[in-house]
């Protein structure tokens, strides 16, 4: 059903959107909106999701890639959040292998440092109890030197090891959306909501603009769900209090050979005692994250600052002094804006790291807005939103615990390793048979040293609503992050493969290349030097 999800299908479906009253319209194409849509669609609701830019364009493609319970939330007394997170983490590990994968995390301990092995061991015992399984252990200094060559050795006592998980966050969004579409939902990117319609004090629909064709429509719905992350307050009534505190988290991506790590390392930054991570992802090494108030215009993509670059390089020097990592080693950067709910009446004076990651719902007749929350808990957040929506529609709603993801159809593909097959099955799910056809046509060659196959690029162009080149290289695949200079060396080969499938003219392709280069330098390159 998803093979027709292309530009031509979009042009056909757009004029029909106003022909019916939708049970539910979801605004926001990140993981929260995708989760809401998926749970509504499998219950037979007539539902539509609208995203003004691209799916996973915001925080959901720029997170720390972690599916975790939030160990530090235990110390803050956020027991329910941690419990829900570890349970959802295990659910995702079970349902989406190859997309959500377990990762060993190591926290080194040093003489006089905090937290010590005993304190952290106690927290990890609680963490394991909430998850229902033991996964932590302590390695002494000698063992740790063997497990983690290059880690700082001065005053090293050992390290505590535990298990969480990592994902490709943008592909997670795409797979959840694919599940929703298979159950009848309609999903569109490049469609901006310009106005929320209210009749007799109740939300009744939205005015929308097709950002690609400059046309407009009025759509009707029984209930509206707003899941726009850091932008969640924009569609609220003007008299509603403002509570969101946008926080920016920035990351560096290094070539795997430059700072090779076999597991994730977490430690407290010497400058502010915030947790920082260094971990392997997609064959490269991620260093992150920062936690700063984001005061720039939310309509512009977030990007790393010089201060954040220095902070993360200092983290590398602190924990891996022999590596001598510099800015010249950085492959790419990314920054996301977390939609954190601040203190009462928008009191944002405390440290960003102290803000809760709990979510809240804001309700008005005919509309439910989700604010805050975590990637890991997108499913229970969606259930909570839909319970509120169902009450407004006069329907009953229960959490039946059904899987988010359908079982991947068995499909043999000659020439793929077990790991390649697992990866493709996790990222593409129901679409695997169509991808297998492209593999038979195009072969199993990967793009450079990445794990991404050329056939995956072709599939995205044909079936995943690519409107612009950055959709393809930064979200359908992650080649724009993993390849030097955003993939510049591969543009000629990409043109040959992708331009016909996207049905772009030569002029359009050239425009997209120029647009992408400027976007990549601004949002994923290094910050300009301060004079």
Automatic annotation (TrEMBL):
**Does the UniProt entry include the keyword Ribosomal protein?**
no
Indicate the segments forming the FAD dependent oxidoreductase domain, all copies: 23-343
Q: Does the keyword Secreted apply?
A: no
Domain Alpha-glycerophosphate oxidase C-terminal span(s) in chain numbering: 402-508
Q: Which domain of life is it from?
A: Bacteria
Query: What InterPro entries does its record include?
Result: DAO_C, DAO_C_sf, FAD-dep_OxRdtase, FAD/NAD-bd_sf, G3P_DH_FAD-dep
Pfam families in the cross-refs: DAO, DAO_C
Cofactor(s) the protein needs: FAD
**GO function term, MF aspect, one:** glycerol-3-phosphate dehydrogenase (quinone) activity
What keywords sit in the KW lines? Answer: FAD, Flavoprotein, Glycerol metabolism, Oxidoreductase
Known EC number? 1.1.5.3
Q: Which processes are annotated in GO (biological process)? A: glycerol metabolic process; glycerol-3-phosphate catabolic process
Query: What's the family?
Result: Belongs to the FAD-dependent glycerol-3-phosphate dehydrogenase family.
Q: What is this protein called?
A: FAD-dependent glycerol-3-phosphate dehydrogenase
Please name the source species: Pseudomonas fluorescens
Lineage at the top is: Bacteria, Pseudomonadati, Pseudomonadota, Gammaproteobacteria, Pseudomonadales
